[in-house]
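Explain my protein.
***
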Amino acid sequence: MTPVSSSVEPVELAEVDAFDHECDVLVVGFGVAGAAAAYEAAAAGANVIVLERASGAGGSSGQSGGELYLGGGTGTQKALGFDDTPEDMYAFLEKALGPHADTEKLRLYCDGSVEHHDWFVARGVEFKHTLFEGQAWMPFTDDGLMWLGENAWPYNDIAKPAPRGHRPPAPGFAGNLLMQKLEEAVTAAGAATHTDTVASHLVMDGGRVAGLVARRFGAPVTYRARKAVVLTTGGFVDNEEMLAHHAPVLVGLGKVSDGLDDGSGIRMAAAIGAATRRMGVVEISMTALPALVARGMLVNGRGQRFVNEDVYPGIYSTHAILQEPGPYWGIIDEEGFESIPPGDLWQVQPKYVEETLAELEEALGMLPGALEHTVEVYNRHAENGEDPHFHKDARWLRPLKGPFAAVDPRDGFFGTGAGRGSGAAGFTLGGLHTTVDGEVLNVSGEHIPGLYAAGRASSGMHGEGYISGTSLGDGSFFGRRAGKAAAREE
């Protein structure tokens, strides 16, 4: 957790006696957005240096699930028999990332998604032609494609469903493999990497960004950027003071990050007049097991359902934390629990098991009859393969029969929570206001010469919603555009 304690005020060019390093394009941060920007700038002929504050590339991207949200008819989709279009992809994402998705960025992303898929393949990223059909935050298989809620209501009424979660062939957290391939591509393109280097101040030549000052093992290091600086420093979930100012809903929750998403790039840019956008928008993930709640139900502290549980789990997580009274419980019967594939169970065990719903209500501290009523209504409709209240797909519907179990999301996955956690973690989606080419805008809506941004340091195509793979997808897609534009900067 990083407090706002150090100055980020810019340094004037005249104050720098000599630069330790010079380049055309200086990329700050070596996650997926920085890798994409550095590759494209170097491929365009620019001399590129990438700064990374850690001891190696990866950042939060490298610790992620590795999903890339791609569609519109990719080679991977076609190989598995899915006929997708950019129009269906756009219709789904506009709803799922909304309300208030950035439609200009989203339209470009969907129209360019097939080419973006092929760009990854050309960089050595493999997507196996196999489909994971279960419910999970991420599969512990090496399948190359997965569903991310496209086949759940209301999205299957809005657009023709197609799976669009593309994954490198690694079980679970595949972000490291993704970043390994991109790091190799960046190096092959000729960009240099300076690790253990923390950017602290932009250098200004009048109104133009001309470089920055950094620290390496405590010693100052100066960089001259002849064309542009590209900020890909991540969001601000690890900065408690910034969270309190802009996204207080995440205060006290867990962090989805590498521990270094401290908002430093956003702060450095804001210090020279850069505008920010949607700083209060966040993604929240609750440790409510998707494979379990789809087979049973997710209820709030009053014992009430509030969502179709087969939807993308980030949707029910955010809805719960922002709108529903806690605590939250995954409710399932013995048959449903035993039907969960071992690879999708994530070592989750029930906290309470009772023969009757009345006994379970008492154990959970619920009002008598609350959960009984919820299950009675659910079972009555499930017998007919229906869920008229929340529209869960018939695939997951059947009456629940005792004994019944309740799983507490606060216990976490793989035995890590032990009742100590909040049951939820998140990250920020707001950041610097940028154009579709990554140009950072000031508060007057004008491009700050020599400054670009991409990834979670910027406000991307998201509105108030989120789907897995849209951070890595958005960051790499618009990182590429920022790198190309930075290399063209005069």
User: Anything to note?
Assistant: DSSP finds 17 helices and 22 strands in the chain. The first strand starts at residue 11 and ends at 12. The domain at 11-63+176-283+426-488 is CATH 3.50.50.60 (FAD/NAD(P)-binding domain).
